[in-house]
Design goal:
The complex is a heterodimer of chains A (177) and B (476).
Chain A (H helix, E strand, L loop, with lengths): L2 H29 L3 H5 L2 E10 L21 E5 L1 H12 L10 E12 L5 E14 L3 E16 L2 E11 L14
Parallel strand pairs in A: 1-6
Antiparallel strand pairs in A: 1-2, 3-4, 4-5, 5-6
Chain B lengths: L10 H8 L5 H5 L2 H5 E2 L4 E2 L2 H4 L1 H10 L6 E5 L8 E7 L2 E7 L5 E5 L14 E3 L2 E3 L6 E3 L4 E3 L22 E5 L2 E5 L7 H5 L2 H9 L9 E3 L4 E5 L3 H10 L27 H4 L4 E7 L5 E7 L13 H18 L5 E8 L3 E4 L4 E7 L5 E10 L4 H14 L7 H13 L11 E2 L8 E2 L11 E4 L4 H14 L17
Classes of the chains: A alpha+beta (177), B alpha+beta (476).
Chain lengths: 177, 476
């Protein structure tokens, strides 16, 4: 094989390995409830957005989701707001999370769309949540991230979460995606 | 999950289920004097969990009531439609080619398939995908395949249009009702009109255009539909369950707490009021004891601060003494709740006795600066709904209360709704709050008692019987 091509392929694999490791570590933090450490992975100017899905004609894909910055969204916030969510859980009085949720964050189908100073990644997510005795939810959908290089790691500069549900089948969204 | 606890092994129920036959008279007393004893502030847990009772609600409560279906700003153009819901059933809310509002059952007259399967859009006709019957935006059946060869021209299309509800737009909020006997909406609202009008007023005290943000929050909660309705109707007693959100910064005022008005009310003398109307509707809010100057609230957001300061001044001038009233929200019997401030409007849709599908929209003054709309939008998303820091804990309460109503042993013991019984004050603290309203300060379950008294009265009237007045007395 051409050494240049080989080098490019190796770089790609290396990058993929780094991104996967980053996401694995992130999931570990969320599932072990180290929320402050998770917040540290977020850029100060992060946009965290999860639209509401609307049932529309097949030709009107662009109207299938509520708009960031304009419409109702399940989430449309920045770091300060996410920090407040963590603070609320830390009070020990947030009854929707007392007793706690047990979560397992999984991701797959990772694509790395770009490789400049920022990376655009896409993946599928599957989050299992179980709480109390029988409360159980599955959250499945697509996640589009913008990652910014930060030393040897990354910071999440934007996260778009597309849940494959129109009527939300869970009673709350006390978890992080 | 508890084992099936809704069977017919309950004595009061066995009488009820016979009530559809010869024991109808006995059954017709069962709710008001039996399961719902507001004289003593006792309400049976059965009303939240028993299948027969739920089925009666679907016949006796929802079709006879005005239900909120949409806001006009969601269908601004001729031809616009949006799907709504009335109890368990899907409805189309549309503005036809001539601008007239309609509410149709979303259900083909031929085989019942939904004739509209998109949440919103613009159209002149609705076609059922099953056999391609076509209905106009005015509900008429305008197309039937093989009318000649299959029906031999013997189908009278004029008899088979979409099923249409009565519709009334109250200051832009569209309500619908299936029953011809139910009074007009304005009469139906009764003394709640003062409070609902207050909700409909823009921040400057005038009636103008509200605009719903795009999208509707729709989500499922494992509890009976009445838990949310009674909570939004006035339950200041449950404040302890919001202890966690009050320790973080949620209010756009940028200080700890969940309400924008927290910083304002702290410095003022006021009555925090629960208000019931004799129609069984609920309202809640604050009556300041005096007329006060505007308190700076939005700190570093100059445009927002200017907007609300101006509104405050204009409202005070316009409403005078009545500007002392600040509504927090309420419940329009049976399943419509509104919240001032976050300006939400929504319904508790029954989805079986053990599940509620909540629908909620949020609105902003149409002509407000974008900065104001943005602040309101962020606030509501973070306050209410499944991602809302406040309502998350409410839903925990309702789900647990519901579970607690299901057990065989638990159901032998009524819920206590007796707080403040006999301490309601008529037309108080100001006469202009309504001649027939009753109010209690701070915490009381008077609103819930009135709500369930109304519920019981309607439940005691079987289908086909002549209707009785549903007005409730304070200790009814």
């Amino acid at each position: 094989m051409d050494t240049t091509l080989e080098r490019a392929l190796l770089d790609q694999l290396l990058l993929r390995q780094q991104v996967e490791q980053f996401y694995n570590a992130e999931a570990e933090l969320l599932d072990s409830r180290q929320f402050n450490a998770w917040l540290d992975l977020l850029a100060e100017d992060i946009r965290y957005w999860m639209p509401v899905t609307i049932n529309k004609e097949s030709g009107k894909w662009d109207e299938e989701r509520t708009r960031e910055g304009k419409d109702l969204n399940w989430f449309d916030e920045g770091k300060f707001e996410l920090e407040q969510r963590v603070r609320q859980i830390e009070t020990g009085l947030h009854w929707a999370e007392e007793p706690i949720s047990r979560t397992s964050h999984m991701f797959s189908n990772l694509q790395i769309m770009d490789n400049s100073c920022t990376l655009a990644t896409r993946c599928r997510f599957l989050i299992y949540r179980n709480r109390g005795e029988t409360e159980t939810d599955f959250f499945v959908g697509k996640r589009h991230d913008t990652l910014r290089r930060d030393g040897s790691g990354f910071k999440i500069a934007a996260r778009q979460i597309f849940l494959d549900q129109s009527v939300l089948l869970a009673k709350n969204l006390t978890l992080f995606f | 999950m508890l084992p099936d606890s809704e069977g017919g092994n309950n004595i009061s129920l066995s009488i009820l289920s016979q009530g559809r036959g010869k024991m109808e008279n006995a059954a017709s007393q069962q709710y008001a004097r039996g399961l719902v004893d507001t004289d003593n502030g006792l309400i049976s847990r059965d009303i939240f969990v028993v299948d027969n009772i739920y089925r009666d609600e679907l016949e006796r409560i929802f079709p006879r009531s005005w239900l909120f279906v949409a806001h006009e700003s969601q269908i601004p153009e001729n031809g616009d439609y949006i799907l709504g819901r009335m109890a368990e059933e899907s409805v189309i809310v549309n503005r036809d080619r001539d601008g007239k509002l309609h509410v149709f059952l979303n259900n083909c007259r031929h085989r019942g398939m939904r004739v509209c399967r998109y949440d919103k859009g613009n159209t002149r006709k609705f076609m059922c995908p099953f056999h391609a019957w076509v209905f106009s935006d005015q509900g008429d059946l305008i197309g039937v395949p093989k009318l000649e060869t299959g029906y031999h021209n013997e189908l009278d299309k004029s008899e088979w249009g979409l099923i249409e509800a009565r519709v009334y737009s109250y200051r832009g909020f569209i309500f619908a009702c299936w029953d011809e006997e139910t009074p007009e909406l304005e009469e139906y609202l009764g003394d709640l009109r003062f409070y609902f009008d207050d909700y409909c007023e823009l921040p400057d005290g005038s009636y103008g255009d509200w605009e719903a943000f795009g999208g509707i929050f729709k989500w499922r909660v494992p509890c009976n539909w009445k838990f949310g309705a009674e909570n939004f109707g006035g339950d200041y007693y449950h404040n302890p369950s919001h202890a966690s959100v009050d320790q973080v910064i949620l209010s756009p005022a940028g200080v700890r707490g969940r309400h924008t008005y927290d910083a304002v009310t702290r410095e003022r003398e006021l009555w925090k009021l629960n208000v019931l109307t004799k129609e069984g509707h609920n309202a809640r809010g604050e009556l300041f004891k005096d007329i006060y100057e505007y308190v700076p609230t939005y700190r570093e957001m100059a445009v927002v601060e200017d907007y609300f300061r101006d509104c405050y001044r204009i409202r005070q001038k316009k409403l005078g003494d009545k500007s002392r009233w600040y509504g927090h929200g309420g419940t329009i019997f049976p399943n419509v709740s509104y919240s001032n401030g976050v300006q939400s409007m929504g319904s508790w849709h029954p989805s079986g006795p053990h599940e509620t599908e909540i629908w909620r929209i949020f609105l902003a003054p149409k002509d407000a600066p974008d900065e104001v709309k943005d602040v309101l939008r962020h606030y509501v998303i973070r306050y209410q709904g499944p991602s809302g820091l406040t309502e998350q804990d409410d839903m925990e309460n309702w789900g647990s209360a519901h579970e607690g109503a299901r057990g065989t042993i638990a159901r032998r013991h009524a819920y206590h709704y007796g707080m403040g019984l006999g301490h309601e004050q008529r037309s108080w603290p100001a006469e202009w709050l309504g001649g027939d309203i009753y109010a209690s300060e701070d915490v009381s379950e008077q609103n819930q008692r009135a709500y369930y008294a109304r519920w019981a009265r309607m439940m005691d009237v079987p289908p086909g019987s002549s209707r009785q007045p549903v007005l409730v007395k304070t200790a009814d």
